[in-house]
């Protein structure tokens, strides 16, 4: 089939790009423009007409990319037309009438590029990350992975394992022959090196995933202490409902923020208290789950609070900031019990000392986003494959010690396969759909 889709944004714009890829691309050009293809990769002005009529859809630029020298590896053309909904719909409608042409699925152009060997799986994922990037640090990470450094590293590790696997299989094929001592030492040395490299990659504090998905901040505390008001202030808009009635927030309210270039997902949660209301109890459980999953917890209590010790002991740790709100309601200093705790005293209502809280949050972010050249993992999928690879290598070493070469070879094959699945060097059909469905249509 030949696929087509709008590859630029769906909103009204000066220019829209409709991409077509497949065996019938030449036929699409001929039927829409009444001419053959222009010179390859050269922008050409053409009148674009409805199929089988002389009615003009638009006058625009077309660029012809003959395969395999195209993004998808197939014959491909881009129609650059005016970006109104009417023009785009008319162009889509005309292409849909051509035999063997259909609308592309999300990510299908990039999926074709991967399947035709134009890019590896890591680069495909990084293209999706680049498209969805909202902060500078996300853009830099996506570009870094697109450049191929991560893929090169995983391929190097895989090649090392394939080399020692060939030696182990040689021993299986020729059981009467003893492996030279230097070969045995080489197998042990290389497998240990690969294991050490993977352990180092895995010890990255999940920075890559935090950059891609956002640093998770959970706002927690008792009912009616100003958690929703704080979320609205940090978001600079009304994200959550604010009410004097305790227990207004039942579900988790999330919003994505850009704080000094760092991507953040901040969650307002239900007030934590003893409750017999089943819906509120579920909201409280969701709040505690968010606390467990968060990279940073903002523990909010009232300045006049007296009953807080049990609450704090369960939630406060090194990844928490104690926020004492409603300083406008106290006439004197804080109680000695609160004063001795490290905290930030604020009033959301009167906009007091919120800059100090934001500065503290920024410092926490900077400490968690220390990016080095060793950060190679950007998705949970990569981490899972590396962990399984490491587990297989540990099994290999144990069996290799006992000279159980048949079983040791299988563990080594499994380890090699896990590395291959990261870059798409093996059959990975089962994971392709989940990866490319995250793309927008037209990419």
What can you tell me about this protein's structure?
With 443 residues, the chain is an alpha/beta fold. It has 16 helices and 12 strands. The strands form 2 sheets. A 6-stranded mixed sheet has the order 3-4-5-2-1-6. Helix 12 (336-339) links the parallel strand 11 (320-325) and strand 12 (344-345). The longest helix is centred in the middle third of the chain and has 25 residues, at 149-173.
List the helices and strands and how they pair.
Blueprint: E1 2-6, E2 13-21, H1 25-33, E3 44-49, E4 56-65, E5 76-83, H2 85-96, E6 101-103, H3 108-115, H4 121-132, H5 136-146, H6 149-173, H7 181-202, H8 207-213, E7 215-220, H9 227-235, E8 253-259, E9 262-268, H10 278-293, E10 296-302, H11 309-315, E11 320-325, H12 336-339, E12 344-345, H13 354-368, H14 380-401, H15 405-423, H16 429-436
Parallel strand pairs: 1-6, 7-9, 7-10, 10-11, 11-12
Antiparallel strand pairs: 1-2, 2-5, 3-4, 4-5, 8-9
Helix pairs in contact: 4-5, 6-7, 6-15, 7-14, 14-15
Question: Main β-sheet: number of strands, strand sense, barrel status?
Answer: 6 strands, mixed
Mean pLDDT: 84
For this structure, the CATH topology of the largest domain is Rossmann fold
Tally the structural domains: 3
Question: What's this model, at a glance?
Answer:
The chain is an alpha/beta fold and 443 residues long. The protein is 47% helix and 17% strand.
């Amino acid at each position: 089939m030949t696929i087509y889709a709008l590859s630029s944004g769906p909103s009204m714009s000066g220019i829209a790009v409709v991409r077509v890829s497949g065996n019938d691309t030449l036929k699409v050009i001929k039927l829409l423009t009444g001419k053959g293809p222009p010179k390859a990769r050269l922008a050409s002005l053409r009148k674009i007409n409805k199929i089988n009529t002389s009615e003009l859809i638009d006058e625009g630029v077309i660029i012809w990319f003959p395969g395999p020298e195209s993004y998808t590896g197939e014959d491909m053309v881009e129609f650059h037309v005016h970006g109104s909904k009417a023009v785009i719909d008319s162009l889509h409608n005309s292409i849909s009438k051509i035999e063997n042409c259909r609308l592309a699925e999300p990510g299908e152009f990039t999926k074709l590029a991967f399947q035709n060997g134009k890019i590896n799986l890591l680069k495909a994922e990084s293209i999706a990350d680049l498209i969805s990037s909202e902060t500078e640090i996300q853009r830099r990470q996506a570009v870094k992975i697109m450049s191929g450094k991560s893929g090169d590293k995983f391929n190097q590790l895989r090649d090392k394992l394939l080399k020692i696997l060939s030696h182990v299989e040689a021993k299986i094929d020729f059981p009467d022959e003893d492996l030279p001592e230097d070969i045995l030492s080489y197998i042990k040395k290389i497998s240990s090196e690969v294991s050490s490299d993977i352990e180092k990659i895995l010890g990255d504090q999940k920075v890559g995933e935090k950059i891609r998905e956002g640093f998770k901040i959970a706002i927690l505390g008792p009912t009616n202490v100003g958690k929703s008001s704080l979320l609205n202030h940090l978001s600079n808009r009304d994200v959550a409902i604010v009410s004097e009635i305790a227990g207004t927030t039942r579900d988790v309210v999330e919003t994505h923020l850009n704080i000094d270039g760092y991507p953040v997902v901040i969650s307002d949660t239900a007030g934590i208290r003893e409750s017999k209301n089943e819906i509120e109890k579920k909201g409280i459980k969701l709040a505690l789950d968010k606390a467990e999953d968060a990279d940073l917890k903002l523990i909010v209590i009232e300045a006049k609070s007296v009953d807080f010790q049990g609450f704090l002991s369960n939630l406060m740790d090194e990844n928490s900031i104690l926020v004492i709100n409603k300083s406008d309601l106290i006439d004197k200093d804080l109680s000695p019990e609160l004063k001795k705790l490290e905290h930030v005293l604020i009033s959301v209502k009167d906009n007091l000392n919120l800059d100090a809280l934001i500065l503290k949050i920024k410092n926490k972010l900077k400490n968690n986003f220390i990016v080095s050249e060793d950060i190679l993992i950007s998705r949970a999928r990569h981490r899972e494959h590396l962990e399984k690879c490491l587990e297989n290598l540990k099994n290999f070493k144990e069996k290799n010690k006992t000279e159980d070469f048949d079983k040791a070879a299988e563990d080594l094959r499994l380890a090699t396969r896990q590395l291959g699945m990261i870059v798409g060097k093996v059959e990975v059909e089962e994971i392709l759909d989940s990866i490319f469905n995250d793309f927008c249509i037209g990419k």
